[in-house]
Design brief:
With 143 residues, the protein is an alpha/beta fold. It has helices spanning 11-19, 35-38, 50-57, 84-95, 109-117, and strands at residues 25-29, 42-45, 71-74, 105-107, 121-125, 134-137. Helix content is 29%, strand content 17%.
């Protein structure tokens, strides 16, 4: 048994994050995201929302400080601002120890799908709010 591992982490999710290297990307998709179509590696996180998973993952995984925008959101329709984006911003800023992540990249839906296909893994969640798909780029740990 291990201690201090968030209950939300499945063994598959922990293994996946540990196998990722610097510059690898991980996509968290909402209930409507075609996870199985996108990813070579799909990790199921049924019953959990994207913000809950981000909160847990960012305890362990630093974001890449060598790229301008290590966080990518699926662009919403014009004049639409998904409420979950504010939550994403709060969670990411809370864990942004380097203070480097000030803006998120927003990517058109089909371009986002193409990028998701290249991700190390796709996490399928039970998030119901639309346009709550997000890609994170893994960084390095400095001592």
């Amino acid at each position: 048994m291990l201690r201090n591992i968030p209950e939300i982490f499945s063994p598959d999710l922990m293994k996946t994050i540990m196998e990722m290297g610097h510059g690898d990307e991980i996509c968290f998709g909402d209930v409507n995201f075609p996870s199985e179509t996108m990813g070579q590696r799909v990790v199921r996180a049924d019953g959990h929302t994207v913000p809950e998973l981000l909160e847990a993952v960012l305890e362990f995984m630093p974001l890449d400080t060598f790229v301008e925008k290590p966080v990518v959101l699926m662009e919403a329709p014009p004049d639409t601002q998904p409420r979950v984006w504010e939550t994403f911003e709060k969670v990411i800023r809370k864990h942004d120890f380097a203070g480097a992540h000030t803006e998120f990249e927003k990517m058109e839906r089909f371009a986002f799908y193409e990028r998701a296909r290249r991700c190390f893994a796709v996490v399928a969640t039970s998030e119901h709010e639309g346009y709550s798909n997000i890609i994170l780029t893994k960084g390095v740990i400095f001592k």
